[in-house]
Design goal:
Layout (H helix, E strand, L loop, with lengths): L3 H10 L3 H4 L3 H5 L6 H11 L11 E2 L2 E2 L3 H4 L7 H5 L8 H14 L12 E3 L2 H12 L6 E5 L3 H10 L4 E5 L1 E2 L2 E2 L1 H14 L4 E7 L11 H16 L3 E7 L17 H4 L6 E7 L1 H4 L8 E7 L4 H16 L7 H11 L4 H24 L6 E3 L7 E6 L4 H12 L4 E4 L2 E5 L5 H19 L1
Parallel strand pairs: 4-5, 8-9, 9-10
Antiparallel strand pairs: 1-2, 3-11, 6-7, 10-11, 12-13, 13-15, 14-15
Length: 433
């Protein structure tokens, strides 16, 4: 039986794409008026005493062991060991939203939700799968794509990851994308599409040009105008790491969040790669749909909070506290630029190498951004090549699928790049002899 709180949220979301495309779990989930909600009320109104939350307080402040505090003495006990709100530190959420406007000028004047903090971008993708994917509703993604998409969608949600061709003639395959949208809508039981777009892409390291981005947006718009309800997940894990001039500089969320009443856009981002803070496990989910009201945004956020509460309870406090302080540091952008420059220099070395080397067994997939590049293998198996490189040359790479080998230049010092890539070409050629 559907919980009354879930029914209330569903009623609020009626008429929105978010409400229409909810999965079975998405329909059932709600944020309970239990300990967390009651504690929030007590924090606001319990002036005499607050006996709600399971935290040890002295003088109204959390206690902290010196053995813990000495490693981060500039943070208060509350900033280190107190529970964070289910949706994340309110100040961090507000600051991150303001940064979205700065990084994506196309968002100016557009309405979208307050970002919700999740424990990493992977968790964000998993929560979105919980909300929108089930046995009857599949997810559309590029081929090749990050292997965790399949693990989340197919293994956790018992659904399918349907894929379109990422490239054609060295460019984004817009025709394959358009056909995939149309086919997915036709195959679905309710004329709906769920699609994830990842730029810069993992594993290829590709971002669309300005004209390609416009074509992607127009394809979504055209499908929506045919009556298809579409939710587009924008996986922006590597946002901002662009190395060529013609790359579209914003997140596609800036275009998609108000493109049509039939399109719900979700931005998945965070400091993991953008701010070189991989182990912080902080991510953000932000929703945008043309015509969606604040009450409706609040309803979908409450469903997301229900998923957070029922799985991890809340995201970690110390990393949220540190990111909030880091974002306010006036030298943050210059510090980030220094490391982006390191990555771009490595990219240039790799680009020069692959441009100057040919192989019957290897075809570099288009790449212009991010942390990686990948080879499409011809006539050889990527796992065979991976093991040969590892066991005979001491070089680690990633076999994405049977014909795709990913090399992360982000983790290669400049003096090792040529050694690694020369070995890849040599061993690949040896396998076809």
């Amino acid at each position: 039986m559907l919980n009354p709180l879930a029914a209330e949220l569903n009623e609020t979301l009626a008429g929105t794409v978010a409400g229409s495309l909810l999965s079975d779990l998405g329909t059932r989930i709600y944020f309970p008026k239990g300990i967390i909600a009651q504690s929030a009320e007590a924090k606001k109104f319990g002036k005499t005493a607050n006996a709600t939350i399971g935290t040890t307080l002295i003088g109204g402040k959390p206690v902290i062991l010196e053995a813990v505090h000495k490693f981060a003495p500039s943070l208060t006990a509350g900033e280190l060991v107190a529970y964070a709100p289910t949706a994340g530190n309110p100040e961090l959420r507000a600051v991150w939203k303001e940064k979205l406007f700065q990084k994506n000028p196309g968002l100016k004047g557009k309405s979208f939700s307050l970002p919700v903090v999740v424990p990493g971008l992977t968790a964000g993708i998993s929560f979105l799968s919980d909300l929108f994917v089930d046995e009857k509703h599949t997810l559309l993604a590029a081929d090749p794509s990050w292997d965790n998409y399949a693990l989340i969608v197919e293994t956790r949600r018992n659904s399918r990851l349907n894929q379109f061709s990422m490239f054609s003639d060295g460019k984004f395959d817009i025709e394959s994308f358009k056909k995939a949208l149309s086919d997915e809508a036709e195959k679905s039981c309710d004329n709906s599409v769920r699609v994830i777009l990842n730029f810069p892409q993992n594993p290829s390291g590709y971002s669309p040009s300005t004209s390609e981005a416009a074509a992607i947006v127009e394809a979504v718009r055209a499908q929506a105008e045919r009556g298809t309800k579409i939710v587009v997940w924008n996986d922006d894990a590597y946002f901002g790491l662009n190395y060529e001039e013609d790359i579209y500089p914003q997140s596609l969320f800036a275009e998609l969040c108000d493109i049509h009443e039939n399109v719900l856009a979700v931005k998945i981002d965070g400091p993991t790669k953008e701010d070189f803070a991989w182990g912080f496990r902080n991510g953000f989910l932000t929703f945008g749909q043309k015509g969606m009201t604040e009450e409706q945004y609040d309803a979908i956020i409450k469903k997301l909070m229900g998923l957070i509460r029922s799985s991890v309870s809340c995201s970690t406090t110390p990393s949220q506290s540190m990111m909030l302080k880091a974002i306010s540091d006036p030298s943050l952008e210059s510090q980030k630029k220094a490391y982006r420059d390191v990555l771009e220099k490595r990219y240039r070395i790799v680009r020069k190498f692959v441009n100057n080397h040919k192989s019957d067994a290897l075809e570099p997939l288009p790449f212009n951004s991010g942390y990686f590049m990948s080879f499409k293998l011809k006539g050889i198996d990527s796992e065979t090549l991976r093991l040969k490189l590892l066991n005979e040359r001491g070089i680690g790479t990633i076999s994405i699928d049977s014909s795709t080998l990913r090399v992360a230049f982000s983790s290669l010092d400049e003096d090792k790049i040529e050694t690694v890539y020369a070995a890849v070409y040599e061993e690949a050629d040896n396998l076809v002899k």
